[in-house]
Write a structure and sequence with these properties.
Length: about 400
Amino acid sequence: MNIIMKIVYKSILVIVLNFCMLFVISCGSKTTNEPAEETMAEVNSTTVELTAPQYAAAGIELGKTEEKQISGTIRASGLLDVPPQQLVTISVPLGGTLKSTELLQGVHVKKGQVIATIENIDFVQMQQDYLEAKNQFEFAKADYERQQELNKENVNAQKTLQQSKSNYASWQAKTNGLRTKLKMLNIDMKALDEGTIINVVNVYSPIDGYVTEVYVNIGKYVNPSDMLFELVNTEHLHAELIVFEKDIPKIKIGQKVRFTLANETKERLSTVYLIGRKISVERTIRVHCHLEDTDTQLLPGMYLKALIETGGVSVTALPDEAIMDYQGKKYIFIADGKGKDQVYEFTLVEIKTGNSELGYTEINWPENFNGDDKEVVIKGAYSLLSKMKNAEEE
């Protein structure tokens, strides 16, 4: 029994000694791999710490926000458009068959140019009615003048004079009415008064411009309510901007507007001319701007992006060098002072930026945060950002 106990005791002693040796080896290995105390301290996702040597090497310079006068701009989008008087839809006052036209989309026309002809047998009847009414009017006029002379000599009765006057006035009204209708049909009244009757009338262009739409074809019967053509004068294009409701108080008539068209880098100029007085369901307002330079190559409906210059305003700003683009957002570093062991501490803060001018950019602090009294890294910010990213990767 004593022999068995001695064997068990020796076995336990061997196990304990082996365990102690492994512990000592493990501790020795851990001590060898520990990093030096000079390296950068631990970093989380929004803070970074630098030792004094690292701070000096990074070229860090601190400063505070400043009040700067920065010219404000408002971003807007919109379309090129034309005023109603420069966009014309052509129709005819009386129906008829389209006898001829040479118009196609994109064709340039001049004011007064014949753009189509309309044929209708009713035109003939209207001209006949006019000539008959004209003859009756001339007869009634002569009779009325004769009755007036007779009445002065008390030869005829007063009733006869009144009837003659009524007949004269009636034919005068009918003649003038038919003449007005025929003028609307562009019928040559001088030729008609000489007895020339036609069954085809001309349609003339009321403006200089380009054909944008052709709605008819030769041989088609058109009613007075039908549209034949659409013409536009591109010399009077304007920019129609869509501006959000919150920006309207900053916009004044006469302000300059810089805009570019889609797929263009050329910047064009215009001036605010009218400000709408109705808010749409999207909470936007239309702003009408006159172009400074005429370009006949521009077309109504072209999409544009614009910057409305609203003038200088006093804003909270930082040097451009203090602001970093990181993961699609704008950031700055706030100096938190020195921590333990003389380590410099900095915190990454997301901000919103506004307009920029002369090396300074307007900034807006996050909600419930005001950093106007804090020191900001105005030089060496990207060095800090690089340190922070490297620490995260480690």
